[in-house]
Amino acid sequence: MSRQPSQRHLLERIGLHSIQGRLSAIAVLSIALTAFGIALAGYRFTSNFEQQRYQAHFALLARQLAANAELGVLLADQRLLASLADNLLAIDDIVEVVIVDSRDQLLLRRGRPANGNDLETVRALVLATSMNAADNPFVADSAPDTGADPIAEVRLRYSLLSLRQLQHRLALGFAVISLSLAIVPAVFYWRLSRAIRAPLKDLLQIARQVSQGRFDVRASGGTLLETRTLSVAINDMLDALQEQRRQLAQANEAIARQQVLAEVGKFSLTVAHEIKNPLAIMHGSLSLLRQQPEPAIELKQRLHHYIDDEIRRVNSLVEDFLLFARPRPPALQRHSVAGLCASLQQRLHLLQPGLQIHCQPADNALHCDQALLERALHNLVRNAVEVASSPAAVEVHISISDSQLRLCVTDDGPGIAPAERERIFEPFFTTKAKGTGLGLAIARSVAQAQGGSLDCQASPPGGGARFVLQIPLDTPADGSAVAVAP
C-alpha cells in the first residue's frame, strides 16, 4: 500500500504523471534510441571503411617501396635504399622502414621515435622482375610475375594515431548529429503535446467551473484544428445550457409566482370562510338582542355564550394565521420536566375538562419554549376533541422515553388513512368541514424548531388516531424561527 503512493510521488517529481510527460518521454526515448542506433551503425561502417582504406594505403606504399628498392637491393646500394626510406618517413604516420634480404638479414633500418604503442606493420616482397613490370608499381599486387624470385622484404611500420583521431572526430560528429536528431524532434513533439495539453487543461478548468454553477465561461481552443473544433462544440453546448438555464429560471419564477398567488388565494378564501361563519353567528346574536330590548335571562346568557365562543374562535384563527404568516424564533428556556408536565396538565384541564391525562413524574430538564409547546399541544388536543366521541375518549400521555419528552395524544375518532398521514401536515390541507389546515402544520414546525418531531403513528387497536410530539432533553435548539413550509 505504501509503495503505490511513493511511485506516484516519484512519477510526479519526474513529470511522468501526465499524458504530455509520458508521451514526451516515450517520443524522446524512441527518437534517441533510433538516432543513436543509426549513428552507431554509421560510425562502425565508416570506421571500418576508413581503417580498411588506411591499411590499403600503407600496403600500397610498401609495394611501391618494394618495387623501387629492387635495384638498390640487387646493387646493395645503401644510399639508394636510405633515400627511398627517407622519402616514406616524410609521411607523418610512417615511423620505421626495414628492408631485409631473402635470408632475413638486415639491409636497412630507418625510423624515428613513435608516440604510443598503437602501431601496425605491413610487408611487401622485393621481386626480381622484368623492367616493364618494374616500371608499374601496381604489378606486384595485381599481376605478379610468378616466375620472379623474392630477393628481399620491405617492412613498413606505421602509427594508427591519425586514424584514431579521425575516428574520434567521426564519433563526435555522429554523436552531435544523433543528438540533434533526438533533440529537434523531441522539442517539436513537446511543443505539439503542449499545444494539445493546454486546451485540455483549459477544458478541465471550464468543467470544474461549470460544476460549480458557472455557465458564462468559454473554452479558447488553442492552435490546433481539432482542439478548436472541440472547443467550439463545448462552447455551443455551454451556450445552449446557459439559454436553457435562463429559460428554466424564468419558468421557475413564473411557477413560483403562480404558487404564491395560489397560496395567497387559498389563504384569503380560508380566512374569509373561517371568519364569515363566526361573524354571521355574532351578527345574528346581536340582532336578536336588539329585537328584544329585554330578552329572557336564559336567552341572553345563551347569546352571550355564542358571541364569546365565536370571538375565541376568531381569535384562535387569527393567531394561527399570524403564526403561519409571521413566524418567530422560539424563546428557549430551561425547564424542569416535572414542572412543565404539571403546567401542561393544568392548562389542558382548563382547556377541555374531562380529558384523560397521564403524566409520569420525572426529574429531568430540557430547553424549550413553553408557550409554543403549549400551543402545539393545544392544537393536537383540539383536533382530537373535535373528532372524538367525547372529551373523555381523548387520552394525553406525558412521559420520558429515549432521552426525550414524549407527548402522545390519542382519540377514538375515524382515524387517518395511511395515504394522508404525511399530507395532514401540509398547510391548508384538512379533512374536516371546518378548519384551516394549519393546526398540525404549526404544531410540527413548533416541534422541529425546538429540535423535536411530530408524527402520526398507526391507528391504535380501538381505532382513532395517535399523534406523538417529542422534544429532546437538555438539547438546546438552534433558535430557528417557527415557520410552516407552504
Overview in brief:
The protein is of the alpha+beta class. It is built from twelve helices and eleven strands. The strands form three sheets. A five-stranded mixed beta sheet has the order 6-8-9-11-10, covered by helices on one side. It has a four-stranded antiparallel beta sheet with strand order 2-1-4-3.
Please describe what this structure looks like:
With 486 residues, this protein is of the alpha+beta class. It contains twelve helices and eleven strands. The chain has helices spanning 3-14, 19-68, 70-75, 78-89, 131-135, 139-142, 161-211, 225-291, 297-325, 337-351, 370-387, 439-449; strands at 94-101, 106-111, 119-127, 150-159, 333-336, 356-359, 365-368, 395-401, 404-410, 453-457, 466-472. Helix 2 runs antiparallel to helix 7 (161-211), helix 10 packs across helix 11 (370-387) and helix 11 packs antiparallel against helix 12.
Largest sheet data = 5 strands, mixed
Overall outline: rod-shaped
Please report the total strand number as a whole number. Answer: 11
Helix/strand-derived category reads: alpha+beta
Tell me, rounded to a whole number, the average pLDDT.
Answer: 75
If you compute it from the alpha carbons, what radius of gyration comes out, rounded to the nearest whole angstrom? 58 Å
Helix content class: 55-70%
Number of helices: 12
| SSE run | HHHHEEEHHEHHHEHEEHEEHEE
Q: Could you give the distance between the termini?
A: 53 Å
Low-confidence stretches: 138-146, 476-486
- Portion of residues in beta strands equals 5-15%
Neighbour order of strands in the largest sheet: 6-8-9-11-10
